[in-house]
Structure formats: structure tokens, C-alpha cells
Amino acid sequence: MDPLPTPQTQPGRDGLAAFLAKPSAATVGLDFDGTLAPIVADPEQARAHPEAVPALAALAPKVASVAVITGRPAGVAVRYGGFAGVPGLEHLTVLGHYGAERWDAVTGTVTAPPPHPGVAAARAELPGVLDRAGAWHGTWIEEKGRAVAVHTRRADDPQAAFEALRGPLSDLAARHGLMVEPGRLVLELRPPGMDKGVALADHVRRTGAESVLYAGDDLGDLPAFAAVQELRAEGLPGLLVCSGSSEVTELAERADVVVDGPPGVVHLLRTLAAQLD
């Protein structure tokens, strides 16, 4: 049996110890893209790592709950993850659009409030904004239902295009009551009020968890990291895991454990499940 990594902080070591001591009261929260699924040039081609679902199915029955928390629509994450109808994942929850949408494996349905009208209005203006900003060839728009994203990964100069668009897209978002969420060569316009931290904290309280593990890879996961730190301050142990990459270092600086991308996350989940046998 492979050993578990040793967290580099005392709060992380306390979080892991609490998780292992009473897994039946532990909640696992996981980002999707970059954490369970490798980052790809076309987000529509993203799929969970081949071993992600088996690892989750091995771990989920041994803990209180597992929630995938993503900026994607919940139904899309379910399809791309291959989560539906999997033995062992009968109680999986997917919180899409940063918690605005909820999919439960028990019912197989998505619940959500009405969409924010500013998203459609901003989407209509986006082509003009990109033209005026002199967007590089290859920059493209992703429709996300309750949000809209502009990707620069396939641009001639991805980082320069990303930086050039931050200001114009922030102005566009502000005009329509939205916010801009930067990520790994993507800028997402979405409604304010929900983020992964709010979604994670709400899920932890709903489940009555006594410890929490959260794994993420991108700037959008920082609120979830902050939520775990706040829960720890309140006395609920937690472990912060970074799915490491060379594109984003902010999470690694705050994490208790850094693993090597989605393969490292899968290995950690599988090792946890084995430890609990």
C-alpha cells in the first residue's frame, strides 16, 4: 500500500488525522477541470482522468459525502465526468456554476434558479468587445448557460491576449451586473454571489461534516481554500490539496499537500480509499 503524503502544515496534518480517524463524518470536495480532468485546449473535449471515477467509487462509500464543485453547468460536468449510474457514487453531488446548480446522483436531476439576465446581454456584446480589444487569432467564446467564458489558450500569444482582455471584459461585466473570474488562460463572466467557497461551506454544513478535504488547481478554487481555512478557525479540521501545474502557483502556496495534476489527485483518492479498508 502506498503511503499518504505528509501535509506540510500542522493544520493540514490535523485535517488528515481527523479524516482518517472518522471517515464516516468526512466530506470530500473536488474541482473538475485541472483536478479530476486534465486541462485541454478545447474545454468541450475535457473528460475525467480514466481512473478518476473508479477512485471516487472506491472512496465515496467510506466517507460522509463527495461533492464535485465546478464552474461548468452541473449536467455537463456529470457527462464529461461519467458520474451517472456508477456503483459507489449513488450519493455523489455535483455543484455546477459555482453552486448555483445542483445535481444529485440519487435523483439524477439538476435543480437551479432562473439565469441572470446579464449573461445573455454580455454575450451579445462580446464579439464587438473582442474586436475592439484587438483579440489575437484563436481567442474564442464558450457558452456556459449561466456564464460565458473567453479562452485565450489557442491564441497566437495566449498570455498577452489574456492580459489585453482583462480590462475590457471587466468593464463589460460591470455594465451587466456580472463579475469576471480569471482562470488558466480563461476569463469567465458570471453572476456575483456564488463561488466555490460559498458552495463548499454550505455543503459541509448541510452534511454535518466533522472534517473536510478540498482539492483544486485554479484561481477559482481560492475561495474554497479560504472557506476551509475559515472552517478550521471554527474548529472543523480540513486538508487543502493542490492539483499542481506550472500555470498557477497561488494554490500551491496555500496548500497543505501538492500533487502532480489530475494523476496525482487520482492517486491520492485511491490511496485514501485503501487506507480506509
Low-confidence stretches: none
Write down the overall mean pLDDT: 94
Number of strands: 12
What level of helicity do the residues show?
Answer: 25-40%
Q: Over the alpha carbons, how many angstroms does the gyration radius reach?
A: 18 Å
Strand order of the largest sheet: 5-4-3-2-1-10-11-12
Large-scale geometry: globular
Strand coverage percent: 15-25%
Number of helices: 9
Structural class: alpha/beta
Elements, N to C (H/E): HEHEHEEEHEEHEEHEHEHEH
Largest sheet: 8 strands, mixed
- What is the CA–CA distance across the termini? 11 Å
Describe the structure.
By secondary structure, the chain is an alpha/beta fold. The protein contains nine helices and twelve strands. It has helices at residues 10-21, 52-59, 74-81, 117-132, 158-175, 196-207, 222-233, 250-254, 261-275, and strands spanning 26-30, 65-69, 93-96, 101-104, 109-111, 140-143, 148-151, 179-182, 186-190, 211-216, 238-243, 257-259. The strands form two sheets. An eight-stranded mixed beta sheet has the order 5-4-3-2-1-10-11-12, sandwiched between helices. Strands 6-7-9-8 form a four-stranded antiparallel beta sheet, with helices on one face. Strand 4 (101-104) and strand 5 form a beta hairpin. Helix 2 packs parallel to helix 9 and helix 4 packs across helix 5. The longest helix has 18 residues, at 158-175. The radius of gyration is 18 Å and the shape is globular. It starts with 9 loop residues before the first helix and ends with a helix.
